[in-house]
Design brief:
This protein is α/β, with parallel strands linked by helices. 23% of the residues lie in helices and 26% in strands.
Length: 195
């Protein structure tokens, strides 16, 4: 099918397939349609059609389309359904020093960055546990600090793994709390070994 007018796409395709986010705002559009009227003049010898054209202007106001944010921007590939929640206001994922420490911990567990998903929940506040579970499907979940707790997870004991229906959860210290205390590092590592 050949479509000459791009406005015709909205009639044959759902909006999500061709509209860019900046196109999903309310703005008037006008559609021009030609109407051909053919009449026959009653003349005895010849019949000539009379063709007139009319332009009909249709103004339609598009309503902004709010599409749900369904994709998380996380570090890693989540190959082993191991999700690590952190909260940093100034960083996209986490500071380089904290990431290096976390990679060393993962290496000791024989995991690579591709095996986990490191999600900075500060960008998604409030983050519901149901949304997190639905999109990332974690079998193991490590929550680094109270600021990284998702809504709806309930009360979790500090540094004590909890086995849920589908997910093994460890709520522990943030990296800021661990970097300043060797006791916190040891407590975290002892529990991290079991998850």
């Amino acid at each position: 099918m050949k479509v000459d007018n791009p406005n015709a796409f909205r009639f044959i395709m759902p909006d999500e397939l061709y509209l860019l986010p900046e196109d999903k705002v309310a703005k008037p559009i006008s559609v021009a349609a030609e109407s051909v009227i053919t009449t026959t003049a009653p003349v005895a010898t010849t019949i000539e059609p009379v063709i007139t054209s009319q332009v009909i202007a249709v103004t339609e106001t598009l309503q902004p389309i709010k599409t749900p944010d369904t994709v998380f921007n996380y570090l890693g590939s989540n190959n082993k359904s191991f999700v690590i929640l952190v909260s940093y206001a100034a960083d996209e994922h986490m500071p380089a020093a904290h990431l290096a420490a976390l990679e060393n911990i993962l290496k000791r567990k024989e995991l690579a960055l591709d095996d986990v998903a490191i999600l900075n929940v500060h960008q998604y506040q409030p983050l519901a546990m149901a949304r997190l579970a639905g999109e990332l499907k974690p079998s193991r979940l490590v929550i680094m600090g109270k600021d990284a707790l998702p809504q709806g997870i309930g009360n979790l004991p500090l540094n004590s793994p909890v086995q849920g229906k589908k997910t093994n959860v460890l709520y522990s210290f943030s990296f800021d709390e661990m970097m300043s205390s060797n006791d916190n590092k040891k407590a975290f590592w002892e529990q991290m070994k079991t998850i």
